[in-house]
Design brief:
The structure holds 2 protein chains of 2 kinds. Chain A is mostly helical. Chain A has 24 helices and no strands. Chain B is an all-alpha fold. Chain B contains 3 helices and no strands. The longest helix of chain B has 31 residues, at 56-86.
Chain lengths: 498, 87
């Protein structure tokens, strides 16, 4: 009996949960900054509508934080069942990191909740309340500092030293696997700015939608225009850092993770299997956003004359444009000029469309807000998918140790499982049975492999790439010197018993 | 902005027909078109007040949580810094 769901593979299911998590978690991080910023501006200039906006955004934040957390738990469950070997190694090696990560999740959830629900209780201690909210951004920074260490390790495996699992090294050492991984800091910085930008554009987009419904109410119209603009400005300024960080991120990947780099640059791996080059499409979205933002700010002089309070210095706006131009120029040099020219076309298109929208809406920002919110959401989704798909572990031809998994007996018999897979019931063709093995190799396998998993896992493995598997295990912490490794590989390759 | 009172007729109000809500609860239930909104009547006033007007339990709770969170962040930072020397 086969209960496999053909329309969704294990990878597809993980990708779906991962993308949903990206959409929600990135937004939560961006909103934490936006809430603090809006509340601070409201306090500084004594503008109630910014404070009200911050409070309503925080309510939304509380809701999506809960959704994101539950989704994350589901993701862990799914990975545990569908990629047990990968996940077990993940937890063994990043055990202490993940414990601290969970504790920071607890701090975050409680701080967000306290910040929202104590809002109206402590108006006399507004600075204290502001400080409480301001803790959210560094807490989020910590939280994805840890998860990015793990993420960067998965993107660029291999370039690290062996980790060990004692309290002093596991906790205090923080495992060189993650924190001294070459792509770690670039990934961290890129996410900091990208999430703030995403959160700001998302909320501006929401203000744009509300403006369509409240254009006749002057109080609400001013509320959404003002707060949408505030969010839009913060988001666009955060955009400034992305091409700079992105360039160095690409450079680090090129040096240390050429597989992932070329997967992205040339649209290989799962990126192409999806039928569309999503990473390129993501960059066209980004180009349209740059153009759209510039088009929006080109009406700045008229806007200031009409009394808008906040503005962005021209130098920063031009800097965004120049940096993005240089980035796309570099991408054109590395890949193909078609990429550069298409990006340029989308940027110009976004610029003209944004200007047209403002004029068509008689000065209202609702359409550009909405456009940028939608593009921002699309960018996060496309970028998140491409990043996941580019990881070597998700490509069968690259890190086969993760994909040629045995099906453990305790596996949940739903979603993707053939209940009686033939490879578990039949002996592999040509495999010798019950041959006496050299005692030292068998004892090595019996003694060292069980540190992380039982021997049945080794026996059930049906791949023939034992050198690669054993090397991977050594990287993950199995204690084998070169001679022992050779013996184990020979033993396993010969199909001898142990 | 509604003042929160029910101005509908008896036959038009399903809560009254069903009789599920006591009078006191009905007074604080906002009309459906305002549900989920956090608007105030006076959006132009920034409502700062004296510190002494805040409930002490609320201020104490926030202070305790801020202190606890700062301590935890310092501890995690210490772990990260110590990791440089113990790895």
């Amino acid at each position: 009996m086969n209960l496999e769901l053909g329309f969704m593979s294990a990878k597809g299911f993980i990708a779906f949960l991962g993308l949903f998590h990206t959409a929600v978690a990135s937004l939560a991080i961006g909103l934490a900054f936006m809430v603090t910023f809006a509340e601070l501006v409201g306090y500084r200039y004594r503008i109630r509508r910014h404070d009200l906006f911050a409070k309503r955004t925080q309510l939304f934040h509380v809701c999506i934080y809960n959704i994101g957390t539950i989704n994350a738990i589901g993701l862990v469950f799914a990975l545990s069942g569908l990629f047990p070997q990968f996940w077990e190694q993940f937890f063994v090696h990043f055990h202490w990191v993940m414990i601290v990560e969970e504790f920071i999740f607890f701090l975050l959830a409680t701080t967000i909740t306290f910040h929202y629900f104590f809002w109206d209780y402590v108006w006399g201690h507004k600075k204290l309340h502001l400080f409480l909210g301001a803790l959210l951004t560094p807490l989020f920074f910590f939280q994805f500092y840890f998860i990015n260490a793990v993420g960067s390790f998965m993107l660029t495996p291999g370039n690290f030293q062996e980790g060990t699992l004692s309290l002093s090294v596991g906790v205090l050492g923080w495992d060189r696997l993650g924190f001294f991984n070459p792509s770690f800091m670039m990934l961290q910085l890129h996410r900091v700015f990208a999430n703030i930008s995403y959160g700001g554009f998302f909320i501006a987009g929401w203000c744009g939608i509300r403006l369509y419904f409240h254009s006749a109410d002057p109080v609400k119209k001013a509320y959404y225009e003002d707060n949408g603009r505030l969010s839009f400005y913060v988001a666009f300024m955060s955009f400034l850092a992305l091409p700079i960080v992105g360039f160095f991120y690409s450079a680090v990947l090129m040096r240390n993770a050429d597989e992932a780099f070329w997967n992205l640059m040339m649209g290989r791996g799962d990126v192409v299997k999806a039928g569309i080059d999503l990473w390129w499409l993501k960059h066209l979205f980004v180009a349209a956003m740059v153009g759209g933002g510039l088009g929006y700010f080109s009406r700045k002089a008229a806007a200031l004359a009409s009394g808008e309070r906040f503005s962005v210095p021209n130098a920063l706006i031009y800097a965004v444009a120049v940096f993005y131009f240089i980035y796309y120029l570099c991408m054109g040099l590395i890949m193909t000029w078609a990429f550069f020219l298409w990006s340029l076309a989308f940027a110009v298109g976004g610029y003209l469309l944004s200007r047209h929208m403002v004029n068509y809406g008689k000065g209202s920002s609702r359409a550009p807000f909405l456009m940028m919110g939608l593009l921002s959401f699309g960018t996060v989704m496309l970028g998140g998918w491409s990043r996941e798909a580019a990881r070597p572990r998700f490509d069968e031809n690259r890190h086969s140790a993760y994909d040629k998994l045995y099906i453990p007996a305790e596996r949940q018999p739903y979603l993707m499982v053939d209940l009686q897979p033939p490879e578990l019931t039949d002996s592999p063709a040509g495999a010798p049975v019950a041959v006496v093995a050299p005692p030292n190799a068998a004892s090595l396998i019996a003694g060292r492999c069980v540190g992380c998993h039982d021997l049945q896992r080794v026996r059930n493995y049906r791949g023939d790439d034992w050198p690669k598997v054993v090397n991977t295990m050594v990287v993950y912490g199995t204690k084998l010197d070169e001679e022992e490794k050779r013996l184990v590989v020979e033993h396993l390759s010969a199909g001898l018993s142990f | 902005m509604s003042d929160g009172t029910d101005s509908g007729t008896a036959t038009a109000d399903p809560r009254k027909i069903l009789g599920e809500y006591p009078e006191q609860s009905r007074e604080i239930i906002p009309p459906a078109d305002e549900a989920g909104e956090i608007w105030t009547d006076d959006i132009d006033t920034y409502p700062l007040r004296e510190k002494s007007e805040d409930p002490r339990w609320a201020v104490s709770t926030v202070w305790v949580w801020v202190g606890f969170t700062l301590g935890c962040m310092a501890f995690v930072t210490w772990l990260l810094v110590m990791g440089l020397f113990h790895d």
